[in-house]
Amino acid sequence: MDYTASDRTVVLSHNGQPPAADSLLSDAGATPRYDELEARMVFAARVRPAESFSVSLNPLVAAAAPLLSEAVRIRSNPHGEDLHALQAQLGAAIRQFEYRALQDGVESAQVMAARYVLCSVLDEAVVTTPWGVAGEWSQLSLLSGFHNETFGGEKVFQLLERLARNPVKHLAMLELLYLCLALGFEGRYRVLPRGMLELEAVRDGLYRQIRQLHGDVPRELSPHWEGLTGGQRRPLFNVPAWKVALAAVACLGVLYVSFAWALGAQRDHALQPYLGTDAAIEFSTQSGMK
């Protein structure tokens, strides 16, 4: 649809006189491009939503949470998967982890170390399944793709020993390593004769170290809880204690007198027949003596 000269607005002064000939008509802009607007709307609808936020105190663990969930899912999956598709999916997830961790302020050195650990965890999760060990994952492993190595089970625990020497600085990384161990990562201990016992000792020692750095968990659910600031509610009746005690003694006295009078009346009524017979016997005895 094109605008013509007849569609333009004629501008008149307040006296009804037209302006100069060169400014008689208002300018008409270009025709709106509705096709471009529609394309922009379609593009906006296809844009990925904002990344999900996290309230975790450890940004490294928060960024690695999807990968840890994938490791658990792979271990518990009894059915086979397409290894090439799985390798592409996990590779994209690792790159997403790097991006999110760096955006959250994690140092690049820690991100690289965490990526090495996560690649080792995911590779072990795949090769310990029946369908993974029988496949060709050794040629598709994440560790070889990102770090040009084939087995990280030894190096992960060497990294753990080095980080544990300065736990305050590397607390976030130590927490990530503990989660990997808690979720079933075994590494070099998987092939040792007493590997499970040694791995349990390493995991328990790491837990105690993290627990010591965090301190004791507060027992109170709301340590800063406060009640209403309006003060305590005053009682309706403010009666001294001695008045209450005096009233109680008076009530007990009235009850005692009432019960005594009632029992005395019932006693006289019950003894009335016997009192008449005794009087007659006494009168006859006195008459015989005369």
From TrEMBL:
Pfam families: DotU. The keyword Disulfide bond does not apply. Residues 59-261 form the Type IV / VI secretion system DotU domain. Signal peptide: none annotated. The chain crosses the membrane at residues 244-263. Keywords: Membrane, Transmembrane, Transmembrane helix. Gene3D superfamilies: Type IV / VI secretion system, DotU (1.25.40.590). Coiled coil: none annotated. Residues 1-27 are annotated as: Disordered. NCBIfam families: IcmH_DotU_IVB (NF038228), IV_VI_DotU (TIGR03349). This is Membrane protein. It comes from Pseudomonas flexibilis.
